[in-house]
């Protein structure tokens, strides 16, 4: 289900929060909630600091080896205005993705890193 596409991000955020009450150490749930809080097209739903907390914990739980999660951490840093950390995290995501032949993730993080270098956060486009 694509909550961003369906413009139901608020509902998705609520569902992820509820799921994390049941599975508090799920890196996937943390990652997905962090991404929505960092990248939502709706500014009222974004929360950079909470996104950083969630993505940092997810990265820690996966020993900083999951490129998708590290990429989410980069987006969270950017949303929180921490652009140097966003660029560094995006670079780590690219390196990890290349190590595991996840070329799509490496490419996408390269594109996002260019945005962070401009001192901008990435936000989904409302559809």
How would you explain this protein's 3D organization?
With 127 residues, the chain is mainly α. Helix content is 68%, strand content 0%. It is built from six helices and no strands. The longest helix is centred in the last third of the chain and has 17 residues. It starts with 8 loop residues before the first helix and ends in a 10-residue tail after the last helix.
Shape call: globular
Structure annotation, total helices:
6
Point out poorly predicted stretches. none
- Rg, Å, rounded: 13 Å
User: How many β strands by DSSP?
Assistant: 0
Describe the structure in brief.
The protein has 127 residues and is mainly α.
Task: Please render the helix and strand layout as text.
Blueprint: H1 9-22, H2 27-39, H3 48-61, H4 67-79, H5 83-99, H6 103-117
Helix pairs in contact: 1-2, 2-3, 2-4, 3-4, 4-5, 4-6, 5-6
Core attributes:
mainly alpha; single chain; 68% helix; globular; 0% strand; 6 helices; 127 residues
């Amino acid at each position: 289900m694509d909550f961003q596409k369906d413009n139901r991000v608020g509902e998705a955020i609520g569902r992820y929060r509820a799921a994390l009450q049941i599975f508090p150490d799920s890196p996937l749930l943390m990652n997905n909630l962090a991404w929505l809080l960092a990248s939502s097209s709706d500014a009222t739903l974004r929360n950079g600091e909470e996104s950083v907390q969630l993505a940092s914990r997810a990265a820690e739980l996966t020993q900083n080896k999951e490129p998708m999660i590290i990429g989410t951490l980069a987006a969270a840093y950017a949303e929180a205005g921490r652009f140097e950390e966003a660029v560094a995290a995006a670079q780590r995501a690219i390196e990890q993705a290349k190590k595991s032949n996840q070329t799509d993730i490496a490419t996408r993080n390269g594109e996002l890193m260019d945005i962070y270098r401009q001192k901008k956060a990435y936000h989904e486009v409302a559809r």
